[in-house]
Every structure is written in structure tokens, then in C-alpha cells.
Design goal:
Elements lengths: L1 H15 L1 H58 L35 E4 L2 E4 L14 E4 L4 E4 L8 E4 L6 E2 L12 E5 L6 E5 L6 E5 L6 E2 L12 E5 L4 E5 L6 E5 L6 E2 L12 E5 L4 E5 L6 E5 L6 E2 L12 E5 L2 E5 L6 E5 L7 E2 L12 E5 L4 E5 L10 E5 L6 E2 L7
Antiparallel strand pairs: 1-2, 3-4, 3-26, 4-5, 6-7, 7-8, 8-9, 10-11, 11-12, 12-13, 14-15, 15-16, 16-17, 18-19, 19-20, 20-21, 22-23, 23-24, 24-25
Helix pairs in contact: 1-2
Bound molecules: calcium ion (4 copies).
Length: 403
Amino acid sequence: MAKIKKVRQNKRMMQASPIAGSRQQKTAENAGYFGELLAAGRRSWLIVGVIALITLGTLGAGLKYLEEDANRQTANGQLKDGSQKTSLLNSINPFMANPTPSPSPQLSKEYIYAGGKMLAVEDANANAAPPTDLAFWRPSNGYWYVLGGQGSQQTSVQWGQSGDQTVPGDYDGDGKTDFSVFRPGTSSGTWYIQNSSNGALTAYTFGKQDDLPAPADYDGDGRTDAAVFRQSNGTWYIQRSSDSGLTAAQFGLGSDIPAPGDFDGDGKADLAVWRGTSASFYILRSSDSGFQGIAFGANGDTPVPADYDGDGRADAAVWRNASWNILYSSTGASQTFTFGDPNSDKAVHNDYDGDGKVDVAIWRPSNGRWYILQSSKVGQPEYQREVQWGQNGDIPVPAFYRR
Ligand SMILES: [Ca+2]
Ligand SMILES: [Ca+2]
Ligand SMILES: [Ca+2]
Ligand SMILES: [Ca+2]
């Protein structure tokens, strides 16, 4: 009704306009009364046409939104008929009681993000990054325990419960890792995140029960994006932090192991999988959407890609039978470290000495000890750092938490 009224108003405005009137007069002189009617009809149809185009445009945008919403619901494992509503970014507390963070001192240093990589402000020209904290999550009580270092004390925070999967990442983009868990549900999974910047608690449904969480910064805005790899269809679902949009991309087979990393060094994580049967990494480069296959390792290996040489690009790397094999992106050369017990140890590679290079490291559940080969101490007596932190049953979650 509103549209019809608008057409009539426009028609009146055109008739009142001196320019429209003079044209109308000429038409009437040339073609008479019926010609005038015809011309007025054409003008009306022109207006109706313009309105129709605008309506179609609005309809198109609406359809696009509906399509994205349907994709989002599919990612959430929900029905497309809208019988279950998707609740995104609900500010609710997922636990019985408010988890109270232990007091932790502020570091004197300020840290910033450059692309997907953390750099210390005072060392911005060097290849330095905040050192990774030794940390574990205890499923039995839902506590996160962060080992204190110089200038900070031990931190313990309750966040999550038994059955959750840890998904630590920097979701708020302040350079510090947020305590975060993914809770698989019967129809959908829920992400619970405690922002390090302001302590805000966020929860949103994203992913399904059997999805493999694969959080990383895929859009390169410095904030971790919630993401899952669905083995049933080899599809990645990513909730972009930059615009809250959904990326759904089929890449890899269900039997592949997701191994995302920034292989092309553009500051955005690339979709990547490790396929044992062909002993290869398959990478979809974010910089040019190019496909890359890297044959490296052998069937049965565990993929451990990371930036071990500190050139800003993830290196293809695998772990098997207590040996790490790394293919350095900077030189194309490979190196083997014989390290750890493959039957019990967990790979916890990260940059513990803060030199911008990921260190080969394992955590041994039987004695709760961390064994770290510090990349900045090669050839020195303190090359291998050994620390007891955690116990059997804990889940190591090394990252930069100190705040
Ligand atoms: Ca992001
Ligand atoms: Ca990339
Ligand atoms: Ca590298
Ligand atoms: Ca290092």
C-alpha cells in the first residue's frame, strides 16, 4: 500500500513540475488526448520500474542474508526451517558460578599484534614475541593453571567443565590468549570465551558435536576466529571475527587431519590438512587462493606445522617415533630432532623463549614435565629447558596468557 501511495505522490509531483508540464503539453499537441494518456502511462511505468528495481535489490540482499543465515544454521547443525533459533554472542554465563580470576599482576611491557603474529612493542624491530606460558587445563575441575614467570605469578582460573575441548586463542585481539572452551552438544556445539581485555564472558553456538575445532585467525584482523572442520563432508566452517560473516569451504577429505597455519605468510591462517595416505600437506593459500601440496613425512605421522625458523611462514613438519621432521620455509632444507616418547608424550611446540621461532617441545603426562628445546639457546647448556607443571590427566594449553 505504501508503495502505491508513493507512486501517486510522485505522479502528482511530476504533473506539478513546470518541466514535466511543458513536455506533457507538447505531447498533447502532437498526439492528442490518447497520446497524452499514453505518455502519462509511460511515466508511471518508468516510476513503477524504478521501484521494482529497488524492491528486487532489497529482496536480493534479503535472500543473501537468508542464505548466509541458512549456512550458519547448517554449521550449527540446526534445521533450515527455523525450528531452532541460532543464538550468536549471547552474553551469558555458562557455569553454575561466576569463575573468579585469580589476581594477576600487569606486565610492564605492552604487546601488539602485527598481522597474525605478536610482536613486543619495545622489540618491534627485532624478531621478538611474548614468550609462551606453560599452562594446562584440568578437566576434573575445569581450572586453567598458568605458570608464573618473571614479573608475573601463577594464575588459576576456572573456565569450562569435564567433556569440554580447549580452544585457546586471542578472540578479542588484545595480544593475550583468552580462556576458551568448545562444548559439544547433541545438536550443536557452544563456544565459551572469557575475554582477557575486559573479562567479558561470551557464549555462542557454532559447530556440531563431532566437528574438530580449528580456531585460528583466518581473516587476518588479529583476532582468533571460531572455526571447525567437519569430517563428514570435509568442510571448514569459519565465523569471521572481522565482520561476523560465515565462511563455509569444502577443503580436504573426512579422513584428513586439519592442520591450519599461515603457510604463505600474509598474516591470515590458510586452510590446510595433513593426509596420511599420501603423506602430504594440502594447503589453500589465503594470499592468492592457490592450491599447494607438500609431500613430507610418512603415513601415521602427526602433523605439527608451525613457524620454526621465524620467517613468518608456517613450516611443514611431522612428528613420529620420537623424531620431529621440519621442512624449513626459509631455506627448503629439512631437519630432524630425535626427541620425546611417541607413546605417551604430547607435542606442545610453541615459542617459549620469545625469539619469534617455535621451539620443539613435548609434555609428558606420566611425570607432568615439559621438555623444551629453546631455539635461542642452541649449543648452550640451557638449550633443553625442563619444568614440572601439571599431572597425568591434564591437557597442556601453552600460549601467552600473562596479563
Ligand atoms: Ca580473525
Ligand atoms: Ca596465509
Ligand atoms: Ca617458517
Ligand atoms: Ca623460540
